[in-house]
């Protein structure tokens, strides 16, 4: 039996896909990897906000919906909060580092005044400006190698990137990992997700063994909180859960260039209730501080 995997054609996406491919090959399946060029790959000079929602996923998931691929592999943070009604996340791999990292010669608080930091994320831009209003934040797009080269050639003093991306690409460079209290990560950052059709029972059975149940629960808690808040890819919110001592520990942050609001919750309830609790706690605190979206 051959299983067709749809994925973006970037180096990072293919490395993520290889983890799923190796599992399937070990189980005796034939595998075909279908590389897809997305809107985000074609318009590298456009800000992510201008490209709209789902720019990293729509074309990839379309192959699955139309029956031209059996599964799609994604960085889960790129998935919109609401998938196509016919699709679902059938498995998540064990989470890699969920944190943000600054690739630079110095820590954020030690960078020279007027330094330029590159990121295309509104969340990261706002947090940087909150902590360091005396440095400049500029958009930066392109693959990771391209972005890193701009640091090496001093076009930027540093860039903010997902720590998991540096690890997966095995990049050796100087960087500093942020605390989730300072830089609360994007929803589902560090998680690789496998998407399939809801009616494809066979794929669910095949991939159930690779599904990390704790990661899957954490992912659902974060997405539930995001839906309550109204966040999503490239929003000014960070949402993070971890499972610690049989409890869901959640951190959520709203930030703009002048204010940063961070809340924390603990819950022994299920992922849905825990996610709702975190989302509502942040909204309540924002309202208390005069911020209503």
From TrEMBL:
UniProt xrefs under Gene3D superfamilies: Periplasmic binding protein-like II, Porphobilinogen deaminase, C-terminal domain
Key words, A-Z: Porphyrin biosynthesis, Transferase
MF terms in GO: hydroxymethylbilane synthase activity
A Pfam family reported for this protein in Swiss-Prot or TrEMBL: Porphobil_deam
Enzyme Commission identifier(s): 2.5.1.61
Cofactor(s) named in the record: dipyrromethane
SUPFAM superfamilies: Periplasmic binding protein-like II, Porphobilinogen deaminase (hydroxymethylbilane synthase), C-terminal domain
Domain Porphobilinogen deaminase N-terminal as annotated: residue spans: 3-204
Enzyme class: transferase
Signal peptide: none
One CC-aspect GO term: cytoplasm
A GO biological-process term: heme biosynthetic process
NCBIfam families linked to this entry: hemC
Family, as annotated: Belongs to the HMBS family.
Name of protein: Hydroxymethylbilane synthase
Annotated organism of origin: Candidatus Acidianus copahuensis
